[in-house]
Amino acid sequence: MSNSSNLPDPGILSDQFVALRLNKISPAIPDRGWVPAYHFTITRADSQEALGDLRLRVGSSDLLRLFAGHIGFAISEPHRGNRYAFHALTVVAPFAWKLGIDPVWITCNPENLASRRTCELAGAEYIETVSIPLGSDMYERDERLKRRYRLCSQRDAA
Q1: Virtual CA dihedral for 109, 113, 119, 120, nearest 10 degrees?
Q2: Quick one: which of 14, 112, 99, 88 has its CA closest to 58?
Q3: Which residues sit opposite 122 in a β-bridge?
Q4: CB atoms inside a 10 Å sphere around CB 83
Q5: Above 60 in pLDDT, residue 91?
Q6: d(CA 101, CA 71)
Q7: 114, 123 in Cβ contact below 8 A?
Q8: Cβ partners under 8 Å of residue 129, min gap 6
Q9: pLDDT of residue 158 exceeding 90
Q10: Whole-number mean pLDDT of the chain?
Q11: Is residue 110 a contact partner of residue 131, using CB atoms and an 8 Å limit?
């Protein structure tokens, strides 16, 4: 699954609160350590109003497991506080597991309390806080630490 053209179409992933609508699939950029990624818009399930975005990175690398995570999400400011990110995460996780990503790694900045709470509500286990390596894209954006969370499928939770 290193080539984005080999990735299956997820269709619309949804629950009663949110729907994830595919915008594009970006290809891997091996020179940068990037894997292919699905880019979704998070919308309200009942109105298709855009709430934010979610990326699902497909593959495995130390950069991904330790710093970037398989899943990244952001909710637009006017829509925060409604647990939309939690719903989006619980909707996309089974698709990630279906693709063979298990466990799913999610990272966030330590000061991002909302993302930390989202991970915890979704059942992800806090593993550790790691330092961002000098020279990485994240370091260049003034990010210095990442909290790492592991989200396993139900079959691995027991």
Answers
A1: 130
A2: 99
A3: none
A4: 18
A5: yes
A6: 11
A7: no
A8: 110, 145, 146, 147, 148
A9: no
A10: 93
A11: no
Write the CATH number of the domain with boundaries 4-157.
Answer: 3.40.630.30
Burial 117-131 (b: 16+ CB within 10 A, else e): ebbeebebeeeeeee
Whole-number Å distance between alpha carbons of 28 and 49: 30
Tokens of 4: 């984005």
Mind listing the pLDDT tens digit for each residue in 23-37? 999 999 988 888 999
pLDDT tens digits for range 67-89: 999 999 999 999 999 999 999 99
Is residue 116 very low, low, confident or very high in pLDDT (cuts 50, 70, 90)?
Answer: very high
Residue 28 tokens read as: 């891997």
Identify the CA nearest to 92 among candidates 134, 130, 47, 39. Answer: 39
Distance CA 45, CA 27 (A): 28
> What residues form DSSP beta bridges with 37?
26, 57
3-state helix, strand, coil in the chain (%, to 5): 30, 35, 35
Helix or strand or coil: residue 31? helix
Residues 96 and 9: their CA atoms lie apart, in Å, by 12
